[in-house]
Amino acid sequence: xxxxxxxxxxxxxxxxxxxxxxxxxxxxxxxxxxxxxxxxxxxxxxxxxxxxxxxxxxxxxxxxxxxxxxxxxxxxxxxxxxxxxxxxxxxxxxxxxxxxxxxxxxxxxxxxxxxxxx
Length: 118
Prior knowledge:
Elements lengths: L1 H19 L3 E6 L3 E3 L2 E3 L2 E10 L2 E8 L8 E22 L2 E16 L8
Antiparallel strand pairs: 1-4, 2-3, 4-5, 5-6, 6-7
């Protein structure tokens, strides 16, 4: 019985990264942007998100940086009809605000950004 429980625990631990990878992508942001109240420098970021619909928490961590500080912001997840990667930026004067991240068939719309058709 202990072996069965032990095997089930190992299987569960091995499965967790497979499920977590579904909501994780790497993106390159070629210029400094503002997301929420945070300024992000240009670079490569690991983007992870949890939640669905209008209640999504997005965490961005700059890769290849010693001791990066994660940035977590609220967003809305929208299913896309086509699978592609990209982002949109709103440029107002000298401020570039990240509006959306398209990650496969999921588009993350950051709070304060207009949704498609608005």
